[in-house]
Specification:
By secondary structure, this protein is an alpha+beta fold. The chain is built from 6 helices and 3 strands, in the order βαααββααα. Helix content is 56%, strand content 15%. Strands 1-2-3 form a 3-stranded antiparallel sheet, with no helix packed on it. The longest helix is centred in the last third of the chain and has 28 residues.
Length: 147
């Protein structure tokens, strides 16, 4: 009898160290994220430029703090053979119609509000961690994207 085993490993971004990320945020990230947020949000208004606006807003966390996306590794062992795939595990998403309805009814204006709050928090040193959390949540608020 064969035994099938699947192991999924999710690792955080091992990119830029924390000190460089903090310096980046202080010198560039806070204002660059604000500019990209505004441009990306404005690109959501005409239907033709929605894909570009979504791409820009999905990039806001990396622009603000140089945060690398998580890397997923899937390790499968089937009949004595081990197969390792990088990024092969897809997270189940809500149905397209639900994500589109959310975007049209709630996502676009809620994201604009959260981006404005994040920018205000980014200007106030005591609230920097909250600004980073808000920037990180933009893709979820915009289209209910699961990560």
């Amino acid at each position: 009898m064969s035994q099938n085993t699947t192991v999924v490993i999710v690792e955080g971004g091992n990119g830029v160290n924390l000190l460089v990320r903090v310096i980046w945020f202080l010198l560039v990230g806070w204002w660059a994220a604000g500019v990209v947020s505004l441009l990306g949000w404005l690109l959501l208004l005409p239907v033709v430029t929605i894909p570009l606006g979504l791409a820009m807003l999905n990039a806001v966390p990396k622009i603000a703090t140089l945060k690398e996306p998580k890397t997923t590794w899937q390790v499968n062992r089937v009949e004595g053979v081990t197969v390792v795939n990088r990024g092969a595990v897809a997270v189940a998403q809500h149905p397209f119609w639900m994500r589109a309805a959310w975007f049209v009814v709630i996502g676009w204006w809620l994201t604009g509000l959260v981006l404005a709050m994040a920018y205000v928090f980014a200007v106030l040193p005591f609230f920097w961690p909250l600004a980073c959390v808000l920037y990180d949540r933009v893709p979820v608020l915009l289209t209910l994207r699961r990560t």
